[in-house]
Amino acid sequence: MGREEVFAAIRGAKTGAVEEGCVGAGTGTVAFGFKGGIGTSSRRVPAGHTVGVLVQTNFGGDLRIDGAPVGRELRAGPASADGSVIIVIATDAPVDARNLRRMAARSMLGLGRTGSAASNGSGDYAIAFSTSRGQPLLSNDAVSPLFLAVIEATEEAVYNSLFRATTTTAHGRTVEALPLDRTIEILRRHGVLAPGH
């Protein structure tokens, strides 16, 4: 990416829903052996603050959804673990740099829930920032709900990146999207989804 691409991205920025799946930096990604991409999710904590997470999924492991062994049932074994996930965490909570670093670290717990292997070749990283200005900083004890929000939103954002991705062919290679019908069947069989949902 060069200077022109950066300025084009800034000029194209807009409010509203964030496009997910095979878009932008997520166009060429693979997660758990399926087409990865961009995913988002957010949580509002009881104090009224919001935590938003955006991920770019490009890593391996053994996909689990709410504990169900989806990856294992869809393929013979775990997908290659190399690659990288980029996690961006935004909050309107008044937290300092130290607690932002702690929030970023908690995102790896959400990633772990999805079955990520975080292997040696996986360059996973997370950054966090706050839009709050001029408000009294939250105490350490008051930050715990933000930690849980980061974990949950990271996990969901990874799933959203997979659910919104489509089968993609480029440079002679095809990466299949997660087969949603079979995934839903697995989730029902493991009691994650009630029958009829």
Which percent range fits the helix content? 25-40%
Give the CATH H-level superfamily. L-amino peptidase D-ALA esterase/amidase
CATH names the topology as: L-amino peptidase D-ALA esterase/amidase
The strand line-up of the biggest sheet is: 3-4-5-6
Q: How large is the share of residues in beta strands?
A: 15-25%
Distance between the termini: 42 Å
Structure summary, number of beta strands = 8
**Main sheet characteristics:** 4 strands, mixed
In the CATH classification, which architecture applies? Answer: 4-Layer Sandwich
Number of helices: 5
- Supply Rg: 17 Å
Which stretches are poorly predicted, pLDDT < 50 over at least 5 residues? none
Strand and helix order: HEEEEHEHEHEEH
**What is the averaged pLDDT score?**
91
Overall geometry comes to globular
Supply the number of structural domains. 1
Label the structural class: alpha+beta
What is the highest CATH level, the class?
Alpha Beta
Walk me through this protein's architecture.
This protein is an alpha+beta fold. 34% of the residues lie in helices and 18% in strands. It contains 5 helices and 8 strands; from the N terminus they run αββββαβαβαββα. Strands 3-4-5-6 form a 4-stranded mixed sheet. A two-stranded antiparallel sheet has the order 1-2. Strands 7-8 form a two-stranded antiparallel sheet. α3 crosses α4. The longest helix has 24 residues. The protein is globular.
